[in-house]
Amino acid sequence: MNESAAPVSLESPEPYVALVTLRRPEARNAVNGAVAQALDRIVKATEADDDVRVVVLTGAGGQAFCAGADLKEVSQGRLNDLMTHDGGFGGFVRAKRDKPWIAAVDGFALAGGCEIALACDMIVASDDAAFGLPEVTRGLIAAAGGLFRLPRALPRALALELIATGGRLPAASALAFGLVNRVCPKARTLPEAIALAAAISGNAPIAVRESLAVARRAYDLDDETLARLSDEAQARVMLTADFREGPVAFIEKRAPRWLGR
Q1: How far is 80 from 98, CA to CA, in rounded Å?
Q2: Does the predicted model carry a pTM greater than 0.90?
Q3: What is the dihedral angle through the alpha carbons of 230, 232, 235, 240, rounded to the nearest 10 degrees?
């Protein structure tokens, strides 16, 4: 599983863990048409691959996770090339994904890069990372999810300030306000993200996906609806072999052997 020659690479650093890397460090991993198309394909490939349970997304070069849209493309009237039908901006921010994605943000995540990170389920950041939506400073808006995902992830007043000023939130503040899961020294950012992915991949994959499907909608639906969705998810999980395997493994004092079915 390798696309190292492409603008986005796909590898498997651990069993059941996929590593997706944006590889345009000379452009601070900005999204162009090739990146959007590649990410769109990779999202679909990892969703369909039973050997992938968790995906880590990062950017090459150590300076930037992603600087957002390639403004050279935008200035030449090719903004639509940075979108895909199924995934939206970058082929990612609106993609339908059941499996958990972790953003390993080494360096800054700005504009569309911040929106890509926000579209992931978890974020591991380097200690020099920074997050921001500077679109208004260029006459644009953060229409790839930033305008609603950032206020969900941060206190309202802080999110509105960042959106209106285009300012940056450093990693330490992002951790304090709960935007990221953990902050690490630069050299540990990717290993920590992969370790987090491995911890998740050790759990029953269907139970993880069903749990996240409900949890992701916690801010959007009322308690009655969420309770119904939880009950429905539980009913589906109870039909799986993994539902039977978990208690048996516990009784037999051994690690469970998840089948993903």
Answers
A1: 26
A2: yes
A3: -90
Return d(Cα 130, Cα 151) in angstroms, integer.
17
Q: What percent of the chain has pLDDT above 70?
A: 98
Question: What six digits make up the tokens of 190?
Answer: 């990717």
Burial of 142 (0-12, 13-18, 19+ CB in 10 A): buried
Catalytically active residues, by annotation: 115, 135
Q: Integer distance in angstroms from the first to the last C-alpha of the chain?
A: 23
Task: Identify the CATH homologous superfamily for domain 8-201.
Answer: 2-enoyl-CoA Hydratase; Chain A, domain 1 (3.90.226.10)
Q: What is the pLDDT of residues 183-206, one digit of tens each?
A: 999 999 999 999 999 999 999 999
Q: Which residue has the higher pLDDT, 139 or 225?
A: 225
Task: Find the length of the chain.
Answer: 261
Q: Are strands 168-170 and 122-126 parallel, antiparallel or unpaired?
A: unpaired
- In the structure encoding, which two tokens stand for residue 88, read together? 């939206």
CA distances from 197 to 53, 105, 200 (A): 9, 14, 5
Tokens, residue 226: 């969420």
Question: Side chain identity at 245, as an amino acid letter?
Answer: E
Placement of tokens 């309770």 in the chain: 227
Q: How far apart are CA 26 and CA 23, in angstroms?
A: 9
Assess contact for 89 and 31: CB atoms under 8 A.
yes
